[in-house]
Amino acid sequence: MNIPANLKYTEDHEWLKVEGEVAIIGITDHAQHELGDIVFIEVETVGETLDSHETFGTIEAVKTVSDMFMPVGGEVLEFNDLLTTNPEVINQDPYEKGWVIKVRMTDAGEMSGLLDAAQYKALIGG
Q1: 113 vs 71: CA distance, rounded Å
Q2: Cα–Cα distances in angstroms (integers) from residue 113 to residues 51, 87, 106, in the given order
Q3: Tens of pLDDT along 2-16?
Q4: Three-class DSSP category at 120
Q5: Residues 53, 68: Cα–Cα separation, whole Å
Q6: Residue 16 gets which letter from DSSP?
Q7: What is the dihedral of CA 11, 17, 22, 25, to 10 degrees?
Q8: Which of 2, 68, 79, 99 lies 20 to 30 A from 44 at CA?
């Protein structure tokens, strides 16, 4: 199971990487593995400002549909358009090409409530 040390994680299996004032958010390798083949991603929150833990979109796999939650509050700036036509990219590369949204964080201090790689690994029993 791939758990990059440079990212932050949520108990809901989202990851977050910060580049300046922007957070890049996606789902973890563990989450994509548990979901199975991803067939559709829906994010209708671009341009909206959401609080931490609010739903920013849904991810549909062959067997289930799951909500995706904001790790931190902020304005949803961008959706990864590649996922519109190739949602399976999340299965292949969840941490690079398979990112889901970019967010301008409202309060970077919220990141202190997120898990580091060791804590996330312990959460999933790794």
Answers
A1: 9
A2: 14, 29, 14
A3: 899 999 999 999 999
A4: helix
A5: 9
A6: E
A7: -50
A8: 2
Task: Give Rg (Cα) of the chain.
Answer: 13
CATH number belonging to domain 12-108? 2.40.50.100
Which tokens is 36 given? 């199975």
Q: What angle do CA 120, 36, 97 make, to 5 degrees?
A: 70
Closest C-alpha to 73, from 31, 43, 113: 113
Distance CA 33, CA 17 (A): 20
Contact indicator for 31, 89 with CB cutoff of 8 Å: no
Cα gap 47→103, rounded to integer Å:
10
What mean pLDDT is predicted for residues 91-116? Answer: 96
81-86 own/partner pairs: CB under 8 Å, 24+ apart: 83/41, 84/41
Q: Identify the CA nearest to 46 among candidates 78, 21, 20, 24.
A: 78
